[in-house]
Amino acid sequence: MYTPNAGAKGTDTITYQVKDKNGNVSNEATVTIAINEPPVAGDDYGKTKQGVPTTIDVLANDKDPDGELDKSTLHIEKNGSKGTATFDVDGKLIYTPKPGATGQDTITYTVKDKDGSISNTATITIDIVPTQTTPTEVYEKGLRTDGTAGDKSSVTVNGVIELSNPTDKPTTPSDIKIIEPTTKLTSGGEPIKWEPSDNGFVGKTPDGKEVISVKVTDTPTADGNTKVNYEVNLKGLVDHPEGKDSLNIEFGVNNGTDEVKTEIVVHDDKPSAADVELSVEPPADNTFYANLIISLDLSSSMGRDDSGIQGGNTHSGMKTRYDAALDSIESVLNSYEERLNSADAGEVRVSMNGFAKQASAIGAIKGYPMDQPYWCSIADARKIVEGLRGYQELRPDHQVIGVDTNYDAALQQIISIFQKPSSSGMEPLDAKNISGKLDNTLFVITDGIPNFGNQEGSQDPLVGNGIAPTSPNGFIPGSPNSDIGEDSWKAFLTEKGIRSVAIGIGQDMLNSSNGKTGEEFIKPIAFDGQKGKDNDGSDVIVLKDMSSLSNILEKYVPSENTIESSFSKNSQDEKTLSFGADGMKSISIEVDGNTYKYDPKTNSITSDGKDKSIWADFGGGEVAIKTEAGGLLSISLGEKNFGQLTYRPGTTRPIGMEKETFTLTLTDNDGTNGKSSISVDISKLKESGHTGLNDADLTALKLFSPESAMELSGGDHDVNATSSHSTGFMHSSLDALQETQNAII
């Protein structure tokens, strides 16, 4: 047996002798051995496009030094990781990349010669070149119809894909096969189904609405390639995964020789809003002069113990509407006093008044003449409020003013307090006599629909009792015997510069008379005589639950530092906010770590904060929030005055705090969020350790709504001492009035 040395080649000779059994030695013989050299396999290189198979002639650089290669013995020693290689019958390597694979791959192989010698292990290196396609991008923002889409939000775009065409075979759009997307899509929650169209496909919802389409427009061929020009048209909204700003839709094109995949990127129309920066600028002349006027409903239904405020000495444990109203009046007196104390100069004068079937001024002594105006200081007004509580010594006699509801009497009596001298010797402040701005604010608080007027038979039978559009013939301003129309009331408020705020409370506001609700009846009372315009949107407040009344009254306390702005428009009235083509799902604002969220479906505000005493839902998306810095942020997140905001700072600021920042979060129907901030610079206010929050006046705040209305019978009617809703507010001496009581409302 002959074993050649490693690396030996060519021929080798061996000499030998042999003996016989007698020991005779033969001549010397020579053996010549030809050493077969193994084949030499050379390394190879190939290049292909993503997803395109390639063929490599690996034997072209392989050789057998002393013989012939046997191509049938080609063997893959190690296959590729990014594709698969095989040899065909001609000894050529066919390599097929895996779908989507790019980069470099290697394969090793060996080959034998005819004599069975095996070659060295050769390496084939293959580069897989990514398909040079640029995804087409379309923008849902371009579907906006509010004029905020801009010119960089295309919904129709053109793209190009290059396919291999070695023979330059002429190609038309119809020769190109569009491989429809496998991405599952929905629009408005409805599935999108792909359907063939001319030279492309279109995605439709079950009702046939076209959402997105792709079609081939041109196919020029040259230099072994076909350029496939195509058009994408976004026609409707595509649902995006929550939290994702874009959605990729993969599709491909095939010409029978080559296949290339690319993507359509649909960008979500993200909600957006501009940041708002505000600054509190304390006036150089810090004065506060005000006339505060209260007109309180004293009808019998005010004795109901359904205020929504616990703590009353009543059957239900709730305070009566009457007591809750007095609490709110006392609270607003405190707020006026706080504002006055923060001023360098000023004065506040108060007029307390009440009404039922007739109206009366309320003075500091028992049995005060009902037709005699009474103006006083905040301190004296506070004493009057106390005198209206408990035994109600200062309360006008029901035997005189009745138990019904007469808006004409209430408004005429307010006019009269500016006509006659006050018995206190203190008259209302006159702007002519002060150095500074004068504020006049009237709060009319009522819980029932009017069932009387001043003039018998004067009420329009189609309109019912209440304030008519125009005053009757022979109208006498301030007269208890004359009705008043809305025209004359507005004229009076404008002349005196009075802002009149109408507040309806309790279940009775849900009732209707001749097709009009309580809210509709109180609207003529509200008017801003300071600005000469109707303020029904903000100055008509209807509450079922009175626990928010204190905050509502505080909202109207004048402040020279109050800032009015908008988070949806700039100073040029241009839109700075959009929920985009997807539309609004919700909007929220974060204040001091608590989030207040408005849901348009329920038209209500919810909060994740545990302290319900620091905010009030005014309905229609309007919310007022007390801030840790002592400010009051009133902001509209709903369709009612959307975007408007008012910030009233405290009289001072906490030590070290120079700015309040609130965060708006806009969420569209795709679940995509957009954020902006509202910041208020309060650095110019004086520092103080007191934040200005008046927690004692704040309890759970609830919005009046028909859906959540308490199941209470409405009505201004007599209540005796044993009634389940009797609270001592009505006395048994009123029983005699039951027989003469008219309409039950």
Quickly give the CATH architecture of the largest domain.
Answer: 3-Layer(aba) Sandwich
Outline: elongated
Q: State mean pLDDT (0 to 100 scale).
A: 83
| Number of extended strands | 46
Strand proportion, as a percent range, falls in 25-35%
Domain tally: 4
The amount of helix comes to under 10%
Runs in which pLDDT lies below 50 for 5 or more consecutive residues are: 692-745
Remind me, CATH topology of the largest domain?
Answer: Rossmann fold
Largest sheet: 8 strands, mixed
CATH superfamily of the largest domain: von Willebrand factor, type A domain
Radius of gyration: 45 Å
Which CATH top level class of the largest domain fits?
Alpha Beta
- Please state the structural category: mainly beta
First and last CA, distance: 127 Å
Number of DSSP helical runs: 8
